[in-house]
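Lab manual, section 2.4: Encoding a predicted structure.

Procedure: take the sequence of the chain (538 residues), apply the prediction step described in section 2.3, and record the output as structure tokens. A sample record is shown.
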Amino acid sequence: MNPLRAIIQQASRFFTYPLMIAAVRLLAVVQTVSFPIGAIIPDWLVFALLGYSVFTAILALPPRATPNSVEQKAALRAGNYGVLVAFDVIATGLVAWKSGASTIAMLPGLDAAVLGISGAAALIASTSAVYAAGVVVAGTASIGAGIVQGLVIGIGPYLAAAFSLVARRNAERQIRAINHVLDAGSDLGTKLAMAEVLTQLLNMLRQFRESVPWQNVVVYVARYDDGIGEEILCAEAISGAHADFYRGGKLRFTDGLVGYSATEQRPLIVPDLQKEMRDASLPKPKAVHGAMVVPIVSEGVTIGSVLFTSAVYGGFTFDMQRLVDRLIRLASVGIQNARLHSKTLELADTDSMTGLLTNRAYQERLDAEYRRAQTTKQSLALLILDVDYFKHVNDTYGHPQGDELLRQLGEVIRQHARKDDICCRYGGDEFTVVMPETIKAEAAMVAGRLRQAVQDRLFQLDGTTAKITISIGVAGYPQDTASRPALVKAADDALYAAKQSGRNNVKLANRLLNQVKAVGVASSLRPPTPIDAQSKTY
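Recorded output:
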């Protein structure tokens, strides 16, 4: 690197905006004293200007040793700024009076760059009036010409300095945002749980609000919906003023602006979501106007989408979209890793034959639901069931066909269990159903419907058909037990009672159900009724 450039870069770390003005002020004083544009400066004013440049340079010293941002570099100690401005305005008037136009008249314009528009206008107007008074007293110009000259001399430096400060602030915001992106990328890639990845992503997007001022942000993740048989976009991480409105939201890939962006795999910016035709059919908060959607794409597949909304019309720009897109690209790696991790756990917890949860997963879920029932003082029911005379099925049709029968039985259990019920294969031909927030009587009704459905089902095997029956034991917490092991034992004892009483029935723990017609619970084994010449009932 050029040594001079290195020195300048090093010095710029400590060189604040007021110190820069102090350096310009010193050069302006030297120019006015040594090479005046108008009349020669009198000696008393020369000494006054030199003292003024030294004194104001001391006032311009930064309030902290090493300023780290544009705001810190533009800041002064309390009270110093007003003194500097006053000295610059007085110096402008004095030089205009004794010499006419000079570079000192530019200093108030530079001072005004750190003010708001109204403050800057007031300062430049005041300086122009003082400058005009000086030239009028000196007899070198009229009041109108003096004011025009003062405005021209003040506005030019103001615009240049203000533009530079704004550009520097924007650049700093971009750099901070990019640093956040890089930091987030290193963290997001290490998370395996989807909740952790989405929480981290939301935290990063909150830090981006300085550069991307959003009102609401909604992170949609693609999930397969068994009910409609396709992937949909589910709102899984939400922050902002209308979080409750978006919570739990689900969109098809054909729904609205979010679905369109996800399908097309390209970001979209709209100035007013209320007037967007592609989103006309979807409800939205009335305060939402500007919107930006960035799809989450991994290996050419859309795995989610992020919606940003603003209360401001046209609240998002292309630069904002590019900045967010960088973070979303990094986040896509973490989200995809979490999806794969979740899928791996799901496969590990899923019985390959029946598609129900495995015994290990059953134990974990039962523990969790039992603890939750204890904490929330809710009921919990447990069904344990198995196939009557299943050994005869294996002996008659062979073990492969016995496995096929268990697979179909798993489908029946899933179809007749409720949405929140947890269906598991305990082992062999035994199955369990964990039923959160369910009293034992309600569980008995579900068990009765399930028993009837299995009895009525014609199971299709290789080249033949078969009918089977099942026996079910039902136990409930806290009606029957006060501990998790006792709940399992109560349900198992009820199953044993069902077997002993003739099979093909439902028994409740500590209670005998001989016959409950309303729920289809039978007390005795119905004699075999062949469906056709090849059907057998066990």
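Check your result against the sample. The chain is about 50% helix and 15% strand.
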